Amino acid sequence: MLFRSRVLATAITLTLATGVLLPDRLSAQDSRLPSMGSSADALLSPTQQAGYGAMMLMQLRHMNLTMEDPLLNEWIQSVGHKLVAANNQPDASFHYFLMREREINAFATLGGYIGVNSGLILLAEKEDELAGVLAHETAHVTQAHVLRAVEQAKRDQLPILLAMLGAIAVSQTVGGSSAANGTMAAVMGAQGLMVQRQINYTRGREAEADRVGIRLLTRAGYSADAMATFFERMQNAMRANRGGDREETPDYLLTHPVTQVRIAEAKERARTFHSNAGFAVGTGGNNPLLPGNMQVTSSTRFTTQSNFDFARERIRALSASTSTLAVREYLDYGKAGDLPDSKRYGMAVAQIRGAHYAEALSTLAKISPAGQQHPWVELTRAEALGLSGNAAAADAAFESLLTRMPNSQPVALTYAQVLTRRNNKTSGARAQAVLRNIAAAAGDDPTFQTAYARANEIAGDTVRAGEAHAEAAYLTGNPEAALMQLHTLKARPDLDYYARARIDARIASMTPVVLELRRQGFKDWDGPQRDR
Q1: Which among 119, 130, 11, 138 is positioned nearest to 67, based on CA atoms?
Q2: Residue 411 lies in a domain
């Protein structure tokens, strides 16, 4: 099942990034991209690009390949948005998200959707190195590399990809190992035909993405050396591959080859930035959007650079195949000496994942006094208290966090999830109130919609619950099911005017997406989801 999900995720990414789902006719008046010296600007409007990027993310979510964690989602977005703030294109839209897989990989696709595998973050040693990868991928979007790749691929790769997807569909009807073999043959055959174009594309665009990425990296207040440092770390990971098999080479190095020349060029660019006082690390640099002496910081305690160690360990705990394996990793670390605060935190997260709440509280209690004040530790302790049944202590901790950070999505979502587990009307009503504070900002988050649906169910508002369930289905790759749910809800005789208007509006906005997917031959996922 893991193999199948990874291959299909690859197919979806290739499909959306290279044009399989492109409309046959595009509205001329909807194309507003600046001229780039080619016909790429006439291919897709910014709105259409964002739509296809969103479709890809919906499908990845449906197969449970993304990591839908409120704390980590806010953190990765904060890192990415520091880079966006340093960009000279303030109208550009970006969405950064995490993938569960521990392979070293990252990718950018249409609409500014940028995904990062857990394995890449686990390899990094500081946030600057992760920011270097995100800056590189962001540059692929700002320099229109993805859009130009769609233009280049549309003519000769479209038949290849259609054939590949057809072969995958046929092979999945067989089942067993033959299905896996058929899928692999289809993918490898298509990749073999495309490899020369990919190499030509990479050599030209990677250098430009490195150059622009380092500029973004430094303007955002990160170290100019971070990109070269991480290139070397990835190269060492490749050399550590004893067998030398292509399948064991980090995925990122297959699409982003790292050579000594490329590392040397990155180091030289970093030296150039260091020689320019306007690019001092930790300042706004020469970002035209910021004064030269302004620090690029976040408005919330949950999104500071100091969170990297805690974020990496939370990723380690949540990306392991099972909670037992995650705990075992930390026990192995402990054999080498006393665990630092971040790894104790990671162990507690793994223990909560395995429903060992008392053990998690004990682990959190061993964190240093300074570490106890870290908001991620505070929130995780409140969660463990609530899940262990200590409602009074949990509510006091959550309410204190809400007072300090009333608009924090991680606090609101975690608190609501703890409240709804109590399954009584009072807790449901409190969860409703907590979630309403973040509804405007979190409406496109399936975790929010699922929690909001459950809160409304418990509180007795079945109409709002139905709307939220439909939104969750839509955001996780089931748009047809979402539309059917809304039509069923609309048929209820007890709807008031406002509820009917909301549902009508959402049906009107979902219908074109469903019709386009049907026209392209895509339907809601029929098979089982990957085990969660």
Answers
A1: 119
A2: yes
Both structure tokens of 531: 């085990």
Residues 330 and 453 in one domain: no
Rounded Cα–Cα distance for residues 127 and 136 (Å): 14
For the full predicted model, state whether its pTM sits above 0.90.
no
CB 435 within 8 Å of CB 412: yes
Render pLDDT for 260-307 as a digit per residue (tens, 0 to 9).
666 666 667 667 766 664 444 343 444 444 444 444 443 344 444 469
Same domain, 411 and 483: yes
- DSSP for 126-143 reads SHHHHHHHHHHHHHHHHT
Residues 6+ apart with CB under 8 A from 282: 221, 295
Q: Calculate the CA dihedral of residues 73, 77, 79, 80 and round it to 10 degrees.
A: 140
Residue range 36-83, pLDDT digits in tens: 344 555 567 778 778 878 888 888 888 888 999 999 999 999 999 999
Q: Which of 261, 282, 297 is the last residue of a domain?
A: 297
Residue-wise DSSP of 288-299: TTS-TT-----S
- Residues counted in the chain: 532
Number of folded domains in the chain?
A: 3
